Amino acid sequence: MQPEHPVPEASDTQLGQAVRQALSRVIDPEIRKPITDLDMIGGIAVDETGRASVDLKLTIVGCPAADTIERDVRAAASGVPGVNSVDVDVSVMSSAERRALVEKLRGSAAHRSIQFGPDSLTRVYAVTSGKGGVGKSTLTANLAVALAARGLRVGIVDADVYGFSIPAILGLVDDDGLAVKPTRVGDMILPPVGRDVKVISIGMFIDSAPGSGSSGGAVAWRGPMLHRTIQQFLTDVFFGDLDVLLLDLPPGTGDVAISIGQLLPNAEVIVVTTPQPAAADVAERSGIVARQTGQRIFGVIENMAPLVQADGSVLDLFGSGGGDEVARRLTAGQDSPVPLLASVPLSLALRRGGDAGEPLVIADPADAASIAIQSVADRIATRGRDLAGRPLGVSPR
Ligand SMILES: Nc1ncnc2c1ncn2[C@@H]1O[C@H](COP(=O)(O)OP(=O)(O)OP(=O)(O)O)[C@@H](O)[C@H]1O
């Protein structure tokens, strides 16, 4: 169908170019790049009365960001001096245009490789624990949000088949508690964005919420299937350029550590433990297995540490000292010490924030648990983004 106001090329008019320039500041909320770079703007024309006509091509039918993009296009075009009104002609890319876009962003399917491999400047942290329920997902999500609040581009791969709780903690769930579904553009998957963090989760591909009483098939997951899923996440999900990628891994040792060692050899490991000695034992084992698969241990976070209450008394639910102990044991025989990055106290607010989809580090940055998590974020944020200190992968002659 012909648009009501046929739209010539932008180069036809100076004002049209000014509109295009303004539209280059409109960011696709899912792909997070200027829509002009994504070839989403076709022709632009401005007639003698100052009426601008913009041809907007959405990536897919039913694009969830359509309203936002159209609104932003109108606002940007209206702000150009000389433009009095804006018509937006919305259409959808042809499959050939969509394929060209996907190839532009991720390369052709035949040549697509793992993102964040050895040549990448993205810092990758695999968050592990020996056992479940120690707060690994809660810490991962809050750490990611704290890093994003520091201006870093952050993504999370939630590969915790047994407790894919990252989407809920970041508010990426519907009324039934189901994780939002990612948008697909051709064979490229766009990670939903929660609290400025790009998230892909196994929970987004399973039709039952964690804790709903239905396993959603999660318990049947075995090593090879998990390996393929992580591989697919790292290949087909379009994260764009990230400063930091956090991986929330299933608790335990073995299969997943081997997968991460193969897929992301430059990943560094953060071991989460609770303070009691029994937890410290299993946490130490998960660190040792990660090291055996060639990964470096960045540090240990102790969670659910003693809480100093308002009246000065100490709530010491899980004892104390486990974090220090794990760090000490993982340091043994190493050239450089494995630090205890933080001791995060028990916090009702941290738990409530997780349940409500409002991460504590933004809901209450002054809470003692927030402060501890933010100290880890500061440490990561100041490391920068380069290859210094990384194994170069050069084989000896
Ligand atoms: N410091 C803390 N104080 C109080 N509650 C916490 C704290 N950290 C985590 N929790 C709560 O403990 C529960 C388990 O946390 P979480 O799901 O993050 O653990 P996990 O190690 O990722 O478990 P799994 O691997 O089984 O998913 C959640 O209800 C969470 O809100």
Automatic annotation (TrEMBL):
PANTHER family: IRON-SULFUR PROTEIN NUBPL. It comes from the Bacteria. Keywords: ATP-binding, Hydrolase, Iron, Iron-sulfur, Metal-binding, Nucleotide-binding. Belongs to the Mrp/NBP35 ATP-binding proteins family. One of its GO terms (molecular function) is 4 iron, 4 sulfur cluster binding. Binds and transfers iron-sulfur (Fe-S) clusters to target apoproteins. Can hydrolyze ATP. Pfam families: FeS_assembly_P, ParA. Gene3D superfamilies: Fe-S cluster assembly (FSCA), P-loop containing nucleotide triphosphate hydrolases. CDD domains: Mrp_NBP35 (cd02037). ATP binds at G130, K131, G132, G133, V134, G135, K136, S137. Residues 17-88 form the MIP18 family-like domain. One of its GO terms (biological process) is iron-sulfur cluster assembly. This is Iron-sulfur cluster carrier protein. The keyword Zinc does not apply.
